[in-house]
Amino acid sequence: MTTQSPSSSSVDSLEKSNQGHPVAFKYFFWGEFAERCSFYGMRAILPLYLTTALHFSDATGGSIYFWFKMACYGLPLLGGYLADRYFGKYRTIVWFSIPYVLGHFILGIESAVAALIALALLSGGSGVIKPNISTLMGETYDQQRPGQTQLRSSAFMWFYFAINVGALISTLALPWLRDHYGYAAAFQFPAWLMVVSLAVFASGKRHYAVEKLAYEAPTPEQQRERRATLGRLMGIFGLMVLFWVPYEHNDSIWVFFARDYIDMKVPFFSMTIAPDQLQFLNPLCVMIFAPLFGWLFPKIDPLARVYTARMKILLGFGCGTLASGIMTIAGFLSNADAKISIMWLVFAYILLTIGEILVYGTGLELAFSAAPANMKGFVTGCFLLTMTIANFFNTFWVHYYGGSLTAEKQTGTLSPGLFFGISGLFALGAAIIMLTMNRDAETEQPAAAA
Fold it and tell me: Where does 299-429 show beta strands of DSSP type E?
């Protein structure tokens, strides 16, 4: 895919030509790239920052981390509501980016109090703006490329690709910066990236959809339609919660497990990587498999009769279950005397990422395409709320993980194998329930990608 960069005088005519992606797309793409690079870089080193630099136990540090992620995924519900009813998506994004930037800079102060203040600002900024960027992009396509659903689907896929290009760079760079220059210097990298993201996004304002905030009370027929649509979506969203419970361990408990039990030497290469650096496999696999699936599914099933939204999500649940199964075996094989191969974690990350693509990528567009016109931001927030609920559960569940080999012995009652195995049962349960669901629970518009 190529995106043109026309001169200023030709912008308006290009946007009205109804050919190719709108000019606005490049601002969404590069703004989201910088913001996600900032966010995921900070997140990559945060669990070990809490447990090493700030000396929290694994259980307490893990719980703080899950509370932070819970807020990041819960506040989009508020962000969508504020944007839909009061401020508009553009102003909501810009205004809440300010505390977001401030939080990044405060996090570099090595203090438990500063960290908690920073995480509150970061979750507020990231959470509130999160649903509005993708929704504003969808509305821009609906206004400037009406009826071109495949083009819009392509934009969502490339938008998701931008997120993971940024995440790949930062998850590789931040652990390296931390190991060579310390946490304070490492946290400067995402801070300035967020400044860049805000500047890029703000500069594209005139190319975005024209927002109308006039609220009209829905008719009884519209209310019935909304309830029916939300009912269908909430059934699927509820099952997604079960998938996210074990998924959300990959950037925290898996990191602790790698620190204690995994030989981090890379096979066939004379190099050793940090336990939290292996997270780069997640965005790397997204960059490989997301475009592949975007090409493959329309190729083998152009009418989306087999690989519907429901089927893609079901396959995602299955991949998540297999990833947990690999971690369960690795957990039972692990012991304090001999570390096991890094390849166990590699295969688990690959399978988990395939599951993420199928569940998150499909769910994100499903939230936009199936939502009533004046509730798109709110419904996107409801989709992200599925991860909030999963992280809320994990704030308590993490205390049962008993695999920590660090000096402090505040460990739970379950061995790594049992912990990962029980966690995987959540994803397996979601897959089984999805299999038994009536196909009428599926929305009319499957998530397509071009």
Answer: 340-341
- As a whole number of angstroms, the distance between CA 396 and CA 382 comes to 22
- Asked if residues 441 and 236 have their Cβ atoms less than 8 Å apart, the reply is yes
Residue 308 lies in a domain: yes
Q: Which residues contact 200 (CB under 8 A, 6 or more apart)?
A: 27, 30, 31, 34
Report the distance separating Cα 80 and Cα 83, nearest Å: 5
Q: What is the DSSP letter of 164?
A: H
Written as one letter, the residue type at 290 is: A
DSSP string spanning 394-446?
HHHHGGGB----SSS----SB-HHHHHHHHHHHHHHHHHHHHHS-GGGS-SS-
| Gyration radius of the chain over CA positions | 22
Measured CA to CA, the distance from residue 131 to residue 77 in angstroms comes to 8
Which DSSP letter does residue 287 get?
H
Under 8 Å between Cβ of 190 and 170: yes
Q: What's the pLDDT at 133? A: 84
Q: Tell me if 2 is assigned to some domain.
A: no
With respect to residue 358, please indicate whether it lies within any of the assigned structural domains. Answer: yes
Paired tokens of 93: 């994004």
Q: What is the pLDDT of residue 214?
A: 64
b/e code 221-239 from CB counts within 10 Å (16+ = b) = eeeeebeebbebbeebbeb
Residue 26 lies in domain: 22-201+221-441
Residue 165 is predicted with a pLDDT of 86
- Token pair of 364 as six digits: 């994100």
Residue 291 covered by a domain: yes
Distance CA 51, CA 335 (A): 21
Distance between CA atoms of residues 128 and 293, nearest Å: 30
pTM for the whole structure: 0.81
Element containing residue 341 per DSSP (H, E): strand 340-341
Domain count, the chain: 1
Low-confidence ranges of the chain (pLDDT < 50): 1-14, 16, 440-450
CATH code at position 340 = 1.20.1250.20
